[in-house]
Amino acid sequence: MKSLAVLYGLICYAIFFVTFLYAIGFVGGVAVSKDINTGLPGPLIATLLVDVVLLGVFAVQHSLMARPAFKTWWTKFVPPAIERSTYVLLASLALVLLFWQWRPLPDVVWAVTSPPAVAAIWIVFALGWATVLASTFLINHFDLFGLRQVWAYRRNREIPPSDFVTPLFYRVVRHPLYVGFIIAFWAAPVMTQGRLLFALATTAYILIAIQLEEHDLVNHFGDRYRLYRTQVGMLIPRLTGAKSGVRPVP
Hints:
By secondary structure, the protein is mainly α. The chain has one domain (2-231). 65% of the residues lie in helices and 3% in strands. The protein has a two-stranded antiparallel ribbon with strand order 1-2. The two termini are 27 Å apart. Mean pLDDT is 92; it is low at 241-250.
């Protein structure tokens, strides 16, 4: 049973990682069979409706299942050791659905033609995704994606409570992972209507998700997190740094 939990966790992680790599190509329009602008455009209203619903499915799943109250209810049916892996699996499947069913809006909103400027934008795009990945390791990548939980279960060990720390990027902004996503979504030498819709919707979702997450963080860490919020900017660095912080809750 414990070995099956580890295998399940590894499979969920592998699905996530492939989905993450595909997401880079999907948004950037590189090295994938279907990207955000692939396909024949359909009626505008129908296209907008489908795309917004797809984005909404991911947003609801991603935020609802991350809330403590939902986790308490969910683990009555799903073993706690695989709760996180199941969350990661369902989030990945929601993204796969989005990639599969996304309707293109290929009309160009803006286009950068200068080769040096295009190269600079692609570098920023890559740095955004690199920031996302690096931020997951700063807050324990393997815990975030469920592998730590199944391995601890396999070894009959309890996972200690989260520590109050601010590693690297978290001394500059409270949510560097989200900063990376925003940079990656908006860094586009050619911005189509579809890419703009995706960037606007995901940025709006990020701003809402941060409020939900920080509510949970305040409940968990109390005054320590309240102090951290006064010292470190949410998405934009402040002039004064912080000496202490918190391990964010995804």
